[in-house]
Amino acid sequence: MRGIDMFNPATPVKTQSANTREFKGRCYLDGRTSDPSEQGWMCGSPPPVEKRVTFESDNFLEFPQLRWSLSHMRELLPTVNVWRGRGGGSHFESEDKAPEIDSLEFTDLDGCERRFDEALYETYTDGIIVMHRGRIVYERYFGALERHLPHACHSVTKSYAGTLAATLVQEGTLEETKTVGYYLPELRGTAFEDATFRQVMDMRSGVSFTVDYDDPYSGIWEFSRACGWRPRTKDLDGPRTISDYLRTMSCEGGHGEAFAYKIVDTEVMSWVMARVTGQSFAQILEERIWRPIGCEEDGYLFVDPAGMTVSGAGLSCTLRDLARFGELIRREGDWNGKQLIPATAVHDIRSGGYSKSDVSHPRELSYRSQWWVTNNEVDSFEARGLQGQRLHIAPKAEMVVARFASHPIGESSANEPITGPQILALARTLCG
Amino acid sequence: MRGIDMFNPATPVKTQSANTREFKGRCYLDGRTSDPSEQGWMCGSPPPVEKRVTFESDNFLEFPQLRWSLSHMRELLPTVNVWRGRGGGSHFESEDKAPEIDSLEFTDLDGCERRFDEALYETYTDGIIVMHRGRIVYERYFGALERHLPHACHSVTKSYAGTLAATLVQEGTLEETKTVGYYLPELRGTAFEDATFRQVMDMRSGVSFTVDYDDPYSGIWEFSRACGWRPRTKDLDGPRTISDYLRTMSCEGGHGEAFAYKIVDTEVMSWVMARVTGQSFAQILEERIWRPIGCEEDGYLFVDPAGMTVSGAGLSCTLRDLARFGELIRREGDWNGKQLIPATAVHDIRSGGYSKSDVSHPRELSYRSQWWVTNNEVDSFEARGLQGQRLHIAPKAEMVVARFASHPIGESSANEPITGPQILALARTLCG
What we know:
four-stranded antiparallel sheet, eight-stranded mixed sheet, homodimer, Beta-lactamase, 17% strand, 18 strands, alpha+beta
């Protein structure tokens, strides 16, 4: 117990010190000091009021409380299970390369020289697994995370959903040129009606959606309240289910004109999948991925107040089960001789979505079927989520990195200057 | 889909017909017609409004919706996991006696002749396992329940908690003659202060607690709102955590004077356990029971808004894992050579709690350490929960019956006239 008593734990600390880091002009407790076991969140029966992380007080997504929350989401919100089946967890070969990897040095995007192990603290890592040629070569847990505990995937969830959507397209169950209105009568007459399935898969609908985490009236928070993730107040009300929220939206441009990253496209995509298959996202995920690859623990998904699963950010799973999914994708959908995902679906994802000269998407990245495609020297593509969640696949390095984190800043831009070069340095080392 | 369209599904049906049963002067859909798959609860993406079972609408504990809810509690409320560990489910020997058991005939307490299999529908059974000499001889699932799905245990949870309390007493970790106030400074100056640990274990505190399921202001609903199980309204507010609620209570009699079945005694008992061990009820349950007996699925517990586990009614688990616990108790705490629960703790439970001439408790039953003790011809003792949950141990018949149900009427008195004689007939058959 150190460092916290002088601070209001729900807000950034006021002054920079040896135990803080500055992001966007604000100071936050550093990776070691903000460790939940140091902070004592939710310790005691009941925990003292000032150590509680709760839905009602709406502090569970604040830093540093979220360092506890992201490993305990089901204790805060209703969830639906994604069953692992009866087979027991599939076996991982392992070959410990921790000493070599820990001491790996690299230069971050700001020109700072760093060591691999220290960089994990700098980026508020909760857990990391590195797989090389199908073997675990590195595995570490920090903070509130343990091997058997599911951690929030945030938008990494989207890449599970996008992979399943790409699978249904390749199988012919869904046609990517058909419109949302064709599949969902409920969205006829709404902004989504004429968007094609492919456009929502690639976040190219023209639907307007504001993302400002500091503005409680922005689209992201209105959506979150519709999901049941945020408490309502008299002033902050609005639609009470995802499907009701999606019907309220309007367009800011033509469909297909530009990439705009927005969770609502993912929810529409998954809604179409549910309608066509007659299964919820949880059921599709369980049947096509969780059970066949032998996940060792159940995963879970948030459900909205109508029981709809949230496929754009709702998954929690263990780090090892995330790594298993990464291996499945690295192996182009083949799992011990069973083609669970069509190889053509993985090839299509890796091809990237659109011209990299398109000014509407991030530099040197494209987005296809809910995956970020880098086109770097090891052909990496990634699933990314707020606070530093990441599933990185580097085919040419035969490497998968699964990583959970609880960074004070949501956007990937906060940890990317370190995490990006760190992972690339690792790929180069393993290749060499 | 039959039978429901003409009714308001949230209320009992108006007129008796071939598809209804009458209880307490009201008609309800019968066991077959109220099957959730027939009713279509929560089917569709999203389910149509009239088929939704939700927390917000407060219909999830109404009949017939609860036939779906009791197998899906985590989708409605926040929960904490009770991990099964990595060992995989422990093996059950089995010997199918279904034909013999299904056709078993018995006379219910109203003098009606019944068959075993038909009686399961009459009592709204969701699942039943019969074990004899450690082997599964009968196993059936109905309605929304499947082998791998956890079902609400309701007050059967209390018997898990009471067994652990009895264990801690036998081990000397807790002293049953010490008072609640001795262990919990927070309850000094409250109605619970001078009650002994043994008195709360046996529901003999003098604390006043009203249970009227039809009155939203009664103790049981105020407690439920404090747990976060029921929506709040402007008129229906009150304490917002279990521990806050317990501090508001008053006495109606002296401690130890009379038995009065009330969940608040269980919560105080578990709070003491948590304080003394430094572990939550979920952690104690996982460490001492769930993992050692090789449960095949994780269980889960409700948590209140402060993250406290609800030990009086909060557990959901699979039917097989409930049966495992029953076997552990039938074997007097021995699990394949490991004494997980002291045999003396089980002997003490079986001895019953107090004189059966005590007019304050039900006829021919006594209550000890949160178990109902029958003293019938096969020395049965039971864990019981609302809507027909039951774990029945008949030592002289070497029999365990684990049973989940979703009866329209909460109180055990509704299904007991059939279930009691049904289980006793089974015990006699297996003995013979």
